């Protein structure tokens, strides 16, 4: 059967995360509900590059599904957007190679996290940026970012609730922090991420910015493999799955 690959965006505010959960509104649940309509009552399973938690947004999530319908690849975008709720949008669609898998073929993911650094909150963006009304040493944060780049065991920066099997070694190609007036943008590009890893990294980097942790402490944190040494998990609403990159088809 043809495999349809889609790049999607969603506002995570009113979803209980990406993954299907009985009795709860999820991104996967809404996608599969629409696909069932298009397929005249036949259920269709959607596979994604990975899950996102409650409140986390996506600018460039990737999904795929199998279909018996002979709809052109680029027509799926229009067909699905006509039925989807207004907090999910199909950015593009195409027929992928038969071997394509949205999760297993990923070579790089990019996440971004946004922080508002001023005393007064922006109530109109309260679901899309983390308000942090405390002084921050951005240069110290940037120094700590470089300590996180490379291949490391990220056990210290993984949730204790993580159920991942195997090691927790991941490679981060880029960890950066950029300031634009009263806003901070964190960028994390890597081969893969552990459960809550980006949010724990952000929480730890904010500790660095407040002087609670020194940039050079990052190395010892990584070596210790102890979650209690890292900062608090930053709130979900400042996080965006920005882009997913795949290996070139052979």
Can you describe what's shown?
- Helices cover 20% and strands 30% of the residues.
- With 250 residues, the protein is an alpha+beta fold.
- It folds into two domains: 94 residues, 2-Layer Sandwich (Alpha-Beta Plaits), CATH 3.30.70.580; 140 residues, Pseudouridine synthase I, catalytic domain, C-terminal subdomain (Alpha-Beta Plaits, 2-Layer Sandwich).
- The protein is globular.
Short description:
With 250 residues, this protein is of the alpha+beta class. It has two domains: 3-96, 2-Layer Sandwich (Alpha-Beta Plaits), CATH 3.30.70.580; 107-246, Pseudouridine synthase I, catalytic domain, C-terminal subdomain (Alpha-Beta Plaits). It has five helices and ten strands; from the N terminus they run E-H-E-E-H-E-E-E-H-E-E-E-H-H-E.
List the helices and strands and how they pair.
Elements: E1 3-10, H1 27-38, E2 47-48, E3 57-66, H2 75-81, E4 88-96, E5 106-116, E6 130-131, H3 138-148, E7 150-153, E8 169-180, E9 183-190, H4 197-209, H5 217-224, E10 239-246
Parallel strand pairs: 3-10, 5-6
Antiparallel strand pairs: 1-3, 1-4, 2-3, 5-9, 5-10, 7-8, 8-9
């Amino acid at each position: 059967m043809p495999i349809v690959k889609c790049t999607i965006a969603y506002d995570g505010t009113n979803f209980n995360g990406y993954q299907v959960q009985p009795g709860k509104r999820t991104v996967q649940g809404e996608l599969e509900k629409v696909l069932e309509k298009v397929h005249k009552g036949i259920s269709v399973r959607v596979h994604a590059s990975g899950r996102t938690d409650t409140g986390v947004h996506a600018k460039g999530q990737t999904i795929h599904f199998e279909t018996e319908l002979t709809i052109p690849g680029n027509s799926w975008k229009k067909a699905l957007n006509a039925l989807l709720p207004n907090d999910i949008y199909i950015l593009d669609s195409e027929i992928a190679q038969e071997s394509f898998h949205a999760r297993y073929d990923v070579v790089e993911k990019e996440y971004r996290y946004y922080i508002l650094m001023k005393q007064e909150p922006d109530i109109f963006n309260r679901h899309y940026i983390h308000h942090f009304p405390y002084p921050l040493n951005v240069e110290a944060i940037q120094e700590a970012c470089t300590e996180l780049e490379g291949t490391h065991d990220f056990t210290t920066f993984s949730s204790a609730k993580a159920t991942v099997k195997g090691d927790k070694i991941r490679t981060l190609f880029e960890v950066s922090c950029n300031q634009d007036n009263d806003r901070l943008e964190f960028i994390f590009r890597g081969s893969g991420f552990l459960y809550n890893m980006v949010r724990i990294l952000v929480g730890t980097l904010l500790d660095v910015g407040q002087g609670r942790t020194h940039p050079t402490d990052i190395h010892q944190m990584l070596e210790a493999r102890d979650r209690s040494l890292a900062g608090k998990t930053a709130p979900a609403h400042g996080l965006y799955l920005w882009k997913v990159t795949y290996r070139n088809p052979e």
